[in-house]
Design a protein that fits this description.
Length: 251
């Protein structure tokens, strides 16, 4: 690459300055949320903390929803980073250990970043709707893929398709079919049902703790969570056949 081509490939000075200013606004908004809670987010207060006018802030974020979307997407990405890093600490261990590490990483991030967790999973901000298939959805899917991988690692698609989830209605089965990829194929509906069950159980316990509903357990909350996640994982794996399911030969 020539010097001219290299210079053209680099962001311009204006773009770099804009990126720095945008990051400063996001950081200031996160600090405001940490101090006052997500529902007290004020563009005027964020601008004031940076020595800007609200009109100046609108140069980077045209409205409150655009800033909220950036905050939500970044929170999901940071949560996904924390979960991924937790899995990395158990990278040489079995899948069950990696799943437990992922769950512990999810809980740890939630109770450490209470206000940002509430931004993601608390009462929706009034009049805010995340853009469909936008950055918030993409960031959330990234985290879901980590749990899917660790929960079902080592199982074949045939085994997952034969998982015991009682009876799924034809309508639910048809709705679940295209939702999640599993390697080069589609994650079977029974496996999707198990994934949502595991996610709901894990997330529900973290929500209870983050919002203070299990404070009476005190310092034992981590142990209760670990025990519940271990039991959930064992139950799900009991529902998946241990032997590959034979596929009928083609006529």
């Amino acid at each position: 690459m020539s010097a001219d081509e290299y210079a053209t490939a680099l962001p311009s000075l204006r773009q770099r300055r804009r990126a720095v200013a945008t990051q400063e606004i996001v950081d200031a908004a996160e600090s405001h949320i940490a101090e006052h809670g997500p529902h007290a987010l004020s563009l005027r207060a964020v601008a004031r903390s940076l020595g800007m006018t609200v009109q100046g802030l609108y140069h980077y974020f045209p409205n409150r929803d655009a800033l909220v979307t950036a905050l939500v997407a970044k929170a999901y990405e940071d949560l996904a980073d924390a979960v991924t890093a937790a899995v990395g600490t158990a990278a040489d261990g079995p899948a069950a250990l990696r799943f437990m590490a992922a769950a512990e990483g999810y809980r740890r991030w939630g109770i450490t970043h209470v206000e940002r967790f509430q931004l993601l999973y608390g009462a929706p901000l009034r009049h805010y709707a995340a853009p469909a298939e936008g950055p918030t959805t993409q960031a959330m899917r990234r985290m879901g893929e980590v749990f899917q991988r660790e929960l079902f690692d080592g199982f074949t698609t045939a085994q997952l398709a034969a998982a015991d989830t009682r009876v799924l209605s034809p309508a639910l089965r048809a709705h679940l079919e295209p939702l999640f990829p599993h390697d080069s194929e589609t994650l079977p509906p029974p496996a999707i049902a198990l994934l949502f069950s595991a996610w709901g159980h894990m997330h529900g316990m973290v929500v209870l703790e983050v919002f203070g509903h299990t404070s009476f357990i005190g310092e034992h909350q981590a142990e209760i969570f670990h025990t519940a996640m271990r039991a959930q994982l064992e139950d799900i794996h009991r529902r998946i056949p241990t032997q590959p399911i034979a596929t009928p030969a083609a006529p």
